[in-house]
Automatic annotation (TrEMBL):
GO terms for cellular component: endoplasmic reticulum membrane. Its main location: membrane. The keyword Cytoplasm does not apply. The chain crosses the membrane at residues 31-54, 130-149, 155-175. It is a multi-pass membrane protein. This is Phosphatidic acid phosphatase type 2/haloperoxidase domain-containing protein. GO terms for molecular function: dolichyldiphosphatase activity. Residues 60-172 form the Phosphatidic acid phosphatase type 2/haloperoxidase domain. It is found in: Membrane. It comes from Oryza meyeriana var. granulata. Keywords: Hydrolase, Membrane, Transmembrane, Transmembrane helix. It comes from the Eukaryota. One of its GO terms (biological process) is protein N-linked glycosylation. The keyword ATP-binding does not apply. The lineage of its organism: Eukaryota, Viridiplantae, Streptophyta, Embryophyta, Tracheophyta.
Length: 224
């Protein structure tokens, strides 16, 4: 037993958790359990959302959206290492002291996501205000979860929110005023045609467009 404890004492300091998925909560705390799952929303969006989107949709707008989130994460790591602000004092209990806390990457991710999605939705259809509002409660819940679970201070999650909001707006402007001009060229390129990458940003209602075309194709097959 003593030998095992000695070996554990040597090994544990060299172990490092993946911060994005490393979530602990107090046993028996139902709110903590709920917020722990909330804290994993960025993972669900990345894996369940954008990976599925690329596999089945291959929209240039979605690809640029995902690229912006990756750029935001890179910016977050750059700021964290530059500022080097520690996490809350009880980070040792969470095994999270090996990474910096300012700004919160979870908070930054969610506010980038909410900002970009809202701007994109309102640009395509101002009437879809309800859809544009959906990500914001999730963003604020993620902020709350990181403070409640002890991974960040209030200042750290607010810093992440501000950086995510500002960078999300800037990235949206870059994509939709500069990069969008290259969408047709990418769509018609050899790689774009090989991967079936497409741009539907010029279509006002993509859902209705695809619905109408799917029905038209079925009728054509039935009459052939």
């Amino acid at each position: 037993m003593a030998e095992y404890q000695e070996m554990a004492a040597e090994v544990l300091p060299s172990l490092k958790a993946i911060a994005l998925t490393h979530v602990r909560y107090r046993r028996g705390d139902k709110l903590g359990l709920f917020l722990a799952w909330v804290s994993l929303i960025p993972v669900f969006i990345s894996l369940g959302g954008f990976v599925s989107h690329f596999l089945f949709r291959r929209e240039l707008q979605g690809i640029c959206f995902a690229a912006g989130l990756l750029a935001s994460q890179f910016l977050n790591e750059l700021i964290k290492h530059s500022v080097a602000q520690s996490r809350p004092a009880y980070c040792e209990l969470l095994e999270a002291c090996d990474s910096h806390g300012w700004p919160s990457s979870h908070s930054q991710y969610m506010f980038f996501f909410a900002t970009y999605l809202s701007l994109l939705t309102l640009h395509r259809s101002p009437a879809r205000r309800v859809i544009a509002a959906v990500p914001w409660p999730l963003a604020f819940l993620t902020m709350l979860s990181r403070v409640y679970l002890g991974y960040h201070t209030v200042a750290q999650v607010f810093a992440g929110a501000v950086v995510g909001l500002v960078f999300g707006a800037i990235w949206y402007w870059i994509v939709n005023t500069m990069l969008v001009d290259y969408f047709p060229m990418i769509e018609e390129s050899a790689v774009g045609r090989w991967l079936y990458i497409k741009d539907t940003s010029h279509i006002p209602d993509v859902l209705k467009f695809e619905y109408d075309n799917a029905r038209a194709a079925r009728r054509k097959v039935a009459t052939d």
